[in-house]
Amino acid sequence: MNIVFVTHYFPPLNSSGARRINAFSKYLSARGHEITVITTRKTARDGLLTEEIPPYLKLLELGGWGLLAPSEVPVGGGQGAKGAVSTRSRAGEWLLKLKRMVMKGAGQLIDHRLIFAIQFAFPWLSSEVTKSLKGADIVMSSCPPWPTHLAGLIAKIRFGTCWVADYRDQFSGNHILRGSAISRPIEVWLERWLIKKSDHVVTISGPMKEYYELFHSSVTCIENGYDEGIFEQMRSADPYSAGRNANSEFVVRYLGTITADRIPLAFFRALVQVNQNDGRRVVAEFYGESSLLRKVLPVEVPLAVPYVSFCPQLPYTGAIQSMLTADANFFIETSDFSSHSSRGVLTTKLFEYLAARKPVVAEITNGALAAKYIERSGLGVVISEDADQICQGLERLRAGEFHPNMDDAFINSLSRQVKSLELEQLLLSLTARPRGDSA
After folding, report:
1. DSSP state, 52?
2. Would you state the torsion angle of the CA atoms of residues 257, 263, 267, 272, taken in this order, to the nearest 10 degrees?
3. Does the N-terminal or the C-terminal CB of the chain have fewer CB atoms within 10 Å?
4. 354 vs 119, 328, 399, CA distance in Å?
5. If you classify domain 228-412 with CATH, what class do you get?
6. What angle do CA 145, 14, 340 make, to 5 degrees?
7. From CA 397, how far away is CA 288, in angstroms rounded?
8. Core vs surface per residue 244-266: b (16+ CB within 10 A) or e
């Protein structure tokens, strides 16, 4: 097949949102399919530009006028992480603050990536992009942001391509980007209109699948996962690293962004409690965007400050290495069950923690979907929102009393390679149908 992915999140941008399409591209290419990725031109305003462009695909970056324009990757192989507080340039931080202000009233409706989508309708659209879309067997757009689906719709109308709409997070009904009473019904209307002409819809979780079945008759769940090739590469580079921590302290690591709906206050209180008892000092390292935590921690749990370190965001391979060398990894996610969006959260980080096969300390309710994955893997030391229970879990870890009963078959089933095979079968079935048949 000739497969074209349309996405905003893609290397050189260092973002977990880029890993799904990148992994699909990697494994589908290895199976003989021709892969093209059409994406936006990246600058420091978008975030850290540390990731290498994959060699197994054709990358086409649009700059705003329908013409190709390469991303601004600094000389020397990429933008380094300059600090733990921010992963964007000053201009990017200002734009992000402005965007958040606008979102309070307009939700996700107003998005600067609309410019990216509109280019697909330009008569002077890049000849390389036009050629790729005309020759595509499948065009698959990945959301967020929602304008990527608008680009997919335009490609279908203009070039007659088979179009699949992929959702990593919901557009309408999003539990984090709620918008206002005015924007929410408009988002629902817009999304229903937007994906009505798609040939198929793909989501990353069961609850999200249930939501989009209200919009479309043909929906499949293909979860996120972990790239086993990267984990094998990291273990091969240093085969002893997974079982070694040079620091005498017991180190629990978190890699990713902390948002306002998941501040780990119970975990911080547990850190204080466990360090009041005899034994190795238990510390937490947070890698990535940390400005919110830096403000909240001294106010809410000041006694935990000596046990918490804030570290810069790492390149992808560095993040995997940090998971492998931690004594344990920390997971937190929303425990809100009020919507399909909140019930359906399955982040890439969850799957990577399981692939690292290190103990997981989770501040999340047992009823959450992510909690079920952690429990089934056998790696969960404690799954709770109670500080006392989390402290008991940390005590077990520090004392060497936790012995995981790993379900390797389950963990292996969550690999990106397996998920890519699922996607391949879906795309093959779609290309075998007459055009326009989305049933």
Report:
1. P
2. 110
3. C
4. 40, 11, 22
5. alpha beta
6. 40
7. 25
8. eeeeeebbbbbbbbbeeebbbbb
Residue 132 to residue 61: CA distance in whole angstroms:
13
Q: Name the one residue in this structure whose structure tokens are 């000739």.
A: 2
Phi-psi region of 134 (alpha: psi -120 to 50; beta: other; left: phi over 0): alpha
- Rounded-to-integer distance, Cα 220 and Cα 377, Å: 24
**Residue 130 identity:** T
Which residues, in sequence order, are bridge partners of residue 361? 330, 382
Average pLDDT in the 374-403 region?
96
The dihedrals phi and psi of 359, each to the nearest 5 degrees, come to: -55, 145
Indicate the DSSP class of residue 8.
Answer: S
Count CB neighbours of 405 within 10 A: 7
Tokens representing residue 296 in the block: 């909240």
Quickly tell me which residue has 């085969």 as its tokens: 239
Name the amino acid, one letter, at 235: R
The secondary element (H helix, E strand) that includes residue 171 is none
Angle between helices 348-356 and 316-325 (to 10 degrees): 50
95-to-44, 69, 331 alpha-carbon distances in Å: 12, 21, 29
Q: DSSP string spanning 343-382?
A: HT---HHHHHHHHHT--EEEES-TTSHHHHHHHHHT-EEE
Hey, is 113 helix, strand or coil? coil
Cβ(221)–Cβ(307) under 8 Å? no
Task: Provide the token pair at 30.
Answer: 């290895």
> Domain extents for the chain?
2-225+416-431, 228-412
Domain made up of 2-225+416-431: CATH architecture: 3-Layer(aba) Sandwich (3.40)
Residue 432: other Cβ atoms inside 10 A: 8
pTM above 0.85? yes
pLDDT digits (tens, 9 = 90+) for 274-332: 999 999 999 999 998 888 899 999 999 999 999 999 998 898 999 999 999 999 999 99
